[in-house]
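Example 156, ligand DQA.
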Amino acid sequence: MTTTSTVLLLSGPNLNLLGERDPAVYGTATLADHVATAEAAAVSAGLELEHLQSNHEGVIVDAIHAARGRCVAIIINPAALTHYAWSLHDALDAFDGPVVELHISNPKEREPWRHLSVVEPVADRTIAGFGGDGYRLAVEAVAELLESPQARGDGR
Ligand code: DQA
């Protein structure tokens, strides 16, 4: 029997506009470019990647619920939801596998309202400020966490 290890990549509001949106902050690569980067890294790590982008908080909460028992890990760029969507915190807290929070920019070096991440307390790793390369780094972090569950460290 073959089993596939599926990693869910979630992209929050406005990330569908990458490539056009604020290129000085987010660069000119599109979301499809970033997903392709993550997919290539997943293939190298022997993982399968599934991607969902939504501009709606509830759709992302539903996707996290649907990943329970089905996906081995979640990589999430919650975009602006990062800073206030406690429903994402609670949904991710109810997911058993590794969670990696991902940002293209480094929100902690931007406007004060971006400094709080409600996802950070339930993330095993946060990767921020590496631009598009963060998508590769996030998949590599997932692969490492799956290989060495003790690396999660905090008993999540
Ligand atoms: C972002 C950072 C967030 O503050 C912002 O709202 C985004 C994108 C990033 O990838 O750098 O939409 O998550």
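Summary: The beta strands are 6-11, 48-53, 73-77, 99-103, 125-128.
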